[in-house]
Every structure is written in C-alpha cells, then in structure tokens.
C-alpha cells in the first residue's frame, strides 16, 4: 500500500476541504505504526446502522503471530455494528485470504513471513469496503428444528425441566442451528421471534409446559403450559421475542410435565418443533 503525506497550504478553504476529504477517505485506514512492530494502526472511522451513527476511535490491531514456517495471509475486519477491529487468521502457505466472517467488513490483508518481526506498509493491502450491496435477505435468520421423527424418551417428571434434544434443522437460513448442543445460536445480533411446540400423549388431569431458556438460565424467559382434562395427545406452545448478541447467546427449548416419571416427547416434526426468525 502506497503511503504519502499531504501538507496543504495554510488557507481556510483548503483546511476545510481536507477535513472533509480526510473523513471520507481515511475511515478505518490501515497502516503500519510510526515505529513499526507486530501491530498495525487503524485510523478513526464511522458506521451508519439504520439511523444509528457510530463514531469509532483509532485502534491498534494485533499483535500478529508470524507462522512457524513459510507465509500466511491474515485479514483485518471491523464489526458492522460497533466498528471494533479483529484479526481473522489465515491458513499457512495459502494464497487465499481467510473468509470474511458474517457481520464483519474487510479492512486489510497482512502478509506474514516466518521471518517477520515488524509489519510495514509494504505488507499491508488496503481492502476497505465499508458499504454492502447485498440484498437484505442475506442477513436474515430463519430456523426450523425438530426431533426429526424420533421420540425423546425418558423425560423426567416435574419439577425437572428437560431440554428438548432438537437434532435436525429442515430450515436453517443463516446457519444458526447448533446441532452439537441442540440449541439455537445465531451469528447475527438482533431481536428474534421464537416459537416452540411440544407434543405428548396425556392422561386425565395432567399437564405439559414449554420453557424457553436463554444461555442455560434456570428460570427461562418464556413459559406456557396446558392441562389435559381427558386422555389425549396434547400440544403445548410458547412464543416470545428476545434479543440475542450474535456471539455467545443461545436459546434452549425445554419441557416440563407430570404425565409420567419417564415420559415421551413425540418426535414427529409436525408435532414437536422449534421456530426462530430475526425480526430486527
């Protein structure tokens, strides 16, 4: 990246023009430190998210860790909402830069050699693209998960709250279904509408409830229950809106029942299922 110093003449109009130009062209500009080391500097920047204007102060990114041998291309990105910078580590000896994570904007590529002891401007490639022409649907999150036709047996009775072991997402726009943990864990921050339904075969004067838990909370953030006046199949449902941060927040779907000490959640995907959609 070519780096130059511009010294305008001391005229008020030039000074004003340069101030405007600097804000437009200098936002998040990446460059080596004045005394180069294994970090790089980002100039101040700004982001507009809907009607929210976020001003971001100058940042120091790194330190970068050179590869043990060969070379590596790392990528510097900023968060679309906060402007906070981070490093995406590349693959050793690959000319392909690492992928841009969801919710991030690219700022720079940094070429690292095994012998790199400082990062200079010659090893930084400016790749700032601080606007995105992707259609709004690309940031949507839509998820439908179920037990995939397999009954969940051995469900303990009240007061035990039992997690529904969702095993399959037939719809997963935004890659938000955490199959390893049977949870909903979106990668984009925002408000989500959540709906959950559990089905059980009931006996007279028994009840079934559905609980939505945020980050494993013992109480849950939403609950709904239904009582059965006669032996029949019953569906208990709950719906709520919750904010999820797109990084650590997750939602578990749980059930609680007094039908049996070893009850069964019906596994049919039309009977027991979980829905989630990003709404804002």
Describe this structure in words.
The protein is mainly β. It folds into two domains: 12-133, no CATH class; 138-278, Jelly Rolls. The chain has one helix and 22 strands. A hairpin with a 2-residue loop joins strand 3 and strand 4. This is C1q domain-containing protein. It comes from Azospirillum argentinense.
What attributes characterize this protein structure?
four-stranded antiparallel sheet, Jelly Rolls, five-stranded antiparallel sheet
Q: Taking strands numbered 1, 2, ... along the chain, how are they ordered across the largest sheet?
A: 13-10-22-16-19
Total number of distinct structural domains: 2
CATH architecture of the largest domain: Sandwich
Percent of residues in helical segments? under 10%
In this structure, how is the largest beta sheet organized?
5 strands, antiparallel
Task: Tell me the strand percentage band.
Answer: 35-45%
CATH topology of the largest domain: Jelly Rolls
Distance from first to last alpha carbon: 38 Å
Structural class: mainly beta
Using the coordinates above, name the CATH class of the largest domain: Mainly Beta
Given as residue ranges, the uncertain stretches (5+ residues, pLDDT < 50) are none
Number of helices: 1
Mean of pLDDT: 89
The total beta strand count reads 22
- The helix/strand series, from N terminus to C terminus, equals HEEEEEEEEEEEEEEEEEEEEEE
Q: Roughly how many Å is the radius of gyration?
A: 26 Å
Shape: elongated
Protein name: C1q domain-containing protein
InterPro entries: Tumour_necrosis_fac-like_dom
């Amino acid at each position: 990246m070519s780096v130059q110093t511009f010294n305008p003449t001391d005229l008020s109009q030039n000074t004003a023009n340069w101030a405007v130009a600097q804000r437009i062209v200098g936002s998040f500009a990446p460059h080596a430190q004045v005394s180069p080391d294994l970090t790089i500097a980002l100039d101040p920047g700004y982001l507009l998210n809907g009607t929210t204007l976020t001003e971001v102060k100058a940042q120091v990114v790194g330190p970068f860790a050179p590869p043990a041998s060969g070379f590596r291309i790392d990528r510097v990105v900023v968060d679309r909402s906060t402007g906070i910078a981070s490093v995406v580590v590349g693959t050793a000896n690959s000319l392909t830069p690492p992928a841009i994570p969801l919710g991030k904007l690219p700022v720079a590529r940094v070429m690292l050699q095994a012998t790199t002891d400082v990062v200079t401007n010659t090893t930084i490639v400016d790749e700032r693209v601080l606007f995105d022409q992707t259609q709004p649907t690309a940031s949507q999150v839509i998820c439908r998960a179920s037990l995939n036709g397999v009954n969940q047996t051995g469900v303990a009775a009240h007061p035990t709250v039992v997690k529904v072991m969702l095993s399959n997402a037939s719809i997963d726009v935004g890659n938000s279904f955490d199959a390893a943990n049977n949870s909903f864990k979106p990668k984009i921050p925002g408000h989500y509408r959540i709906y959950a339904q559990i089905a059980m075969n009931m006996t007279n004067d028994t009840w079934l409830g559905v609980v939505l838990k945020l980050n494993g909370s013992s109480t849950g953030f939403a609950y709904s229950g239904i009582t059965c006046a006669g032996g029949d199949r019953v569906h208990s449902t709950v719906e709520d809106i919750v904010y999820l941060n797109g990084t650590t927040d997750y939602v578990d779907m749980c059930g609680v029942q007094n039908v049996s000490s070893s009850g069964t959640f019906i596994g049919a995907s039309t009977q027991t299922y979980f829905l989630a959609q990003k709404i804002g």
